[in-house]
Amino acid sequence: MTTVDHPLAIPADWRDFLALTKPRVMTLVVFTGLCGMLAAPQAIDPILGFTAVLCIALGAGAAGALNMWYEADLDAQMKRTRGRPLPAGRMDRQSALHFGVGLAVFSVLLMGLAINLIAAAILTASILFYVIIYTVWLKRRTPQNIVIGGAAGAFPPLIGWAAATGQVTLLPFLLFALVFLWTPPHFWALALFVKTDYANAGVPMLPVVAGERTTRHQIGLYTIPMAAVAVVPWPLGLTGPIYGAVSIVATAFFALLAARVALRMAADGDTMAPEKRLFGYSVAYLFIMFGALVVDRWVA
């Protein structure tokens, strides 16, 4: 990690601190955590439920802020990230560090004191995994960064379920596995059409070090176990027919888009339209799957 220093021509304001939390990423994290809580067999008091979701959001925001603090030098070299508060010079790195650490400590303490220690322990693990394992250790060292680091974004359903029940059973572990296996196809689809950005920053993303063809094949390969994990809660009797039907249709469409990416050869000047469609749908896919899980739980 190298230091990025800029004259602070524009002082940071609340929007810059909000940007540090990666609010678009946080939306999906909060949603999967909330759905994990609502799908649990025990209802949680609404005030405690709100507190748990708030803690998940703050923990995700803390991880995002610490990621931006550590990766300020990389962000400055990438077109899609150079406008962030640190590389743009609107905030100093120490402020980002203090903000991230403060959010992390507060979110874990509040979760432990207001909800339960199991949920607080999983929240702690998710923050540390994203910051230390993914950001510090894996991101700059291996093209497997997304594969292993994907666990960081898979924790919220476990946290939500644990907040409601005080324990973790098979279904939330399958939800964890779904997000974990979804992450490589989702992120590698993005990496294919922003490959130049990663190459310029020296980040060893799979398309940069192994090429587009290998990346496309890996997207197809990871989609297979993801599809199996997505559908299996229904035949195991862990969900009802609403989730079963939605999971089959939504996952089949995901697999179709992934197959189109996996089996094609991109030409020079390609607009990467199939990759962009897969990336866009992959975000909607998790909202569809977890939304169906909650509807299935409450309708049944």
UniProtKB/TrEMBL annotation:
Keywords: Cell membrane, Heme biosynthesis, Membrane, Transferase, Transmembrane, Transmembrane helix. The keyword Transmembrane applies. It catalyses: heme b + (2E,6E)-farnesyl diphosphate + H2O = Fe(II)-heme o + diphosphate. GO terms for biological process: heme O biosynthetic process. It is found in: Cell membrane. Carbon 2 of the heme B porphyrin ring is defined according to the Fischer nomenclature. Converts heme B (protoheme IX) to heme O by substitution of the vinyl group on carbon 2 of heme B porphyrin ring with a hydroxyethyl farnesyl side group. This is Protoheme IX farnesyltransferase. It comes from Hephaestia caeni.
